[in-house]
Amino acid sequence: MRKLPSLLLSIIVLIILLAFSSVEHGLLIGPVDTGLPPEENRFTRVVIADKLDEPMAMTMLNDGRVLFIERKGQIHIYNPATGKINLIATIPVSTKYTSKEGVVSEAEDGLLGVVLDPQYETNHWLYLYYSPAGDDPKNILARYELRGDELVMSSRKVLLEIPTQREQCCHTGGGMVFDRSGNLYLATGDNTSPRVTGYTPIDERPGRAAWDAQKSSANTNDLRGKIIRIQPTANGSYTIPAGNLFPKGTYPSDRAKTRPEIYIMGLRNPWRLSIDSRTGYLYWGEVGPDMRDSVGVGPNGYDDFNQARKAGNFGWPYFVGDNAAYWDRDFATGQSGERFNPAKPVNNSPNNTGLNELPPAQGAFIWYSYGASREFPIMGSGGRSAVGGPIFHKADFKNAERLFPDYYEGKWFITDFIRGWIMAVTMDQQSKYVSMERFLPNERFDSPIDMKFGASGDLYLLEYGSNWFRGNDNARLVKIEYNGGNRKPVVHVSADKTSGAAPFQVKLSSKGSMDYDGDALLYQWEVNSSNGVSRTSSEANPAFTLEQPGLYTATLTVKDPKGATNSQSLELKAGNESPVVAFSITRGNKTFFFPGQTIEYAVDVSDKEDGSLMDGRISPSQVAVTIQYVPDGFDKVELVAGHRYADAAAMLASTAKQLMAGSDCQACHSVETRSVGPAYKEIAAKYKGDNSAPERLAKKVIAGGKGVWGESSMSPHPGLSMTEATQIVTYILSLSDEKATVKMLPTRGSYTMDIPSGESTKGSFVLRAAYTDRGSSLIPASSSESLIFLRNPTVAPETADESKQTELITAQGKAFYVVGSGAYLGYHDMDLSGVSQVDFAVQASPKVDAAGGTIEIRLDSPSGKLIGETAFIEIRDPTRPVGSHAGQVPRPAPVKARIAGVEGIHKLYFVFKNANARDNQILMRVSSIQFIPGDA
Questions:
Q1: What angle do CA 784, 788, 794 make, to 5 degrees?
Q2: pLDDT tens, 862-880?
Q3: Is a pLDDT exceeding 80 seen at residue 615?
Q4: Alpha-carbon distance 893 to 369, whole Å?
């Protein structure tokens, strides 16, 4: 092989070195593609705060702190060093609008945007965009000083005022970002009512300016419906950078008809702004209108994710999506005119104070409507609300604790407020769209409204929550951390049983323990007792025989070859077999309750040491049996915990009463009134809140005592164990707690499922039986329970145990869609005894390009025995209220399917069919499924 000339070889080496340097410093033209995305389990979602009150936007400080704002004016700072969130200031803001008729309603106004100055470390400047309180309708951009955690209110300087109308809602914008030249970009909404049914808002009739976006978005002399670009100055003013849409001199004869601050015009409701630090290009999400394609009216409504490489016009209210055009409309006559021309848009509205001829309209970068997108099918279907997000470059972070991997270099992270996903958008070397993919596809976010990378390298999100204009339990500040190194092993412990008579033979299991890195794990078990007995094993699943009665703790520690460890423990009881409790329904449906119908039930209890209900050694009064109606909305985990409290109180009462009945307690005491000794409620009141009282009084019950309640003395009770005496005392002290009063039912009987007066009809009945055995002096009492949930006969589609081809929308109302023929919902352990019909609340709307179809009811699998089928559900165009992306529509009459002769417990599948539908086409929206009894 011939040797390369030395000059050529030097050039090649230089190119290679420059390439490596570019990658290291984030200067490579185009993204770094490292192949497959990182495993999802390398990311951890950490909830920092919840139950926020309308969080809107955030800005990141270089020291790792996160400053975020809430719409009603609150400003908070999260400090990761302390883990605390402090409310540092409240800005007086306007959050209402008042119609001409005097009706006051909630607006989208308030505290809307926040950003730090690029030179914050030296000047401490913070910029806020908000709707100031008062009668003067406007939004302002103001600068404040932020000193530590103090917002210096006296430092305020107003840079910009934007007059608005507060007669009608909506669209405020508020996103802000700085570029590397120190230019501040501010997004503003069109300040126009979307309530113009079926048409783009260009109502030119007198008094209807609030319904005409031509006054704002299409007005070159108005700052609403724009992205403004200015350069703030030290004195609290600003200058106009070169390159804006209407620089001085562009229209010499019409200079008074343009605002030089405008960088982008023709926007409806732009959200979060981002600058690509490599190219300087501007990115944002934009919320589009609620419309569907109709000749003479306009195209489907589209939401957009946009890219601007220079100043331009993005077309609203004349165009949406990829420059899809509306027809002109005369609202006085109801007639449509010509279709607007994106190459030469003209604004002739009487509400326009700017130029008539506008710059050409530019199409969106990514656009999508309610139906499944042909161009971007991964984005799903249904409600929509584009937000935006950051472009990731490693070079933007210095000394970060954690960084996302090279796979995401140059990708744009976008999110949708309604659909709750995050996408990672890949662009080529020229920043053109290539593809997108779900980021953390198994996670769903609750109305994400802002998303930014912090100084730590973590991705932070603000989740607004499920309901507008109020605080939400699921309104949160969260962060997503990436672990690119060795991951701690996952450990799980279990046992074939956790209690038994001595000698107690137990098999321990490490099943479920694993290492995400695929490392072989070392296992170390330790079984320790309170009396000093210790056993160890290095087996993964050892067996032990515990000879001595007592309490034991079994701890498993797993370790990977790199030294990362994780541990988990469980408690074992030797010397006391746990009781066995069974609650069964002997007549009636075992899955659903039907209001007004009566069930019959039986409870069985047996205990190795205590006996059973059958042999009479366990009294029915010792078994806590409860049936309770629980309204809709209760968390199941909390519900179970609450019932355990109630049943524990009931069992405690029954056991204590039996012990007291066998002693001489009733000779000296009663519950309500004083006798020889004090009333039990007097004792409870005296020692309420004294945590040491149970043990102290239990010893006194055994030993006897006098002097506390007068001259009378209490005789000793040496026949009681410490456990029994403690149960008696605990019951007496519980009488100060009204929650301890529980109505118990017999162990066999009938119960009519009547919903309590005033309660929601959407709840469930919980049937529970529980028993606590007597324990011993060495082993505490052991409890067992049997629980049955009789669910409401109306079930929600999102509660299915399994599903295929479905999509749930949770923001601003709920919508559940089935997509493509063969989609199904599967419910396990369903009893169809006595059920004669299933009613489906469904709707096939043209708004989401639904296809309609039939619903099959099948047993045990999606292709199992067909037991019922609906008629074809036709496409229906209901009257729809406007202003709601979630598609709140009146529900049609339910679609019915008859079934008969099905008994017993089955898996039940509802299969949605339409052979003519596209694979990604919505068939219908499912609101609920109701099971109807045969005698209804």
A1: 160
A2: 999 999 999 999 998 754 4
A3: yes
A4: 27
DSSP secondary structure string for all residues of 593-661: --TT-EEEEEEEEEETTTEETTTTSS-GGGSEEEEEEE-TT--HHHHHHHHHHHHHHHHHHHHHHHHHH
Helix axes 693-703, 722-734, angle to 10 degrees: 120
Superfamily name and number for 794-933: Galactose-binding domain-like (2.60.120.260)
Q: What angle do CA 813, 817, 822 make, to 5 degrees?
A: 165
Q: Which two tokens stand for residue 539?
A: 């087996």
Contacts of 681 (CB under 8 A, 6+ apart): 671, 672, 735, 736
CA separation for the pair 625, 120 (Å, rounded): 65
pLDDT at 253 over 60: no
Ramachandran category for residue 134: left, alpha or beta (phi over 0 → left; psi -120 to 50 → alpha): left
CA distances from 931 to 475, 763, 791, 892 (A): 34, 15, 11, 18
Predicted TM-score of the model (pTM): 0.64
Distance (Å, whole) CA 308 – CA 185: 12
Is residue 25 pLDDT above 50, yes or no?
no
According to CATH, where is 1.10.760.10 located in the chain?
580-790
Q: What is the mean pLDDT of the chain?
A: 86
Q: Which amino acid is at 144?
A: Y
- The rounded distance, in Å, linking the Cα atoms of 880 and 882 is 6
Token duo for residue 205: 């009739």
Look at strands 565-574 and 499-500 and give their pairing. Answer: parallel
| Superfamily (CATH H level) for 494-574 | Immunoglobulins (2.60.40.10)
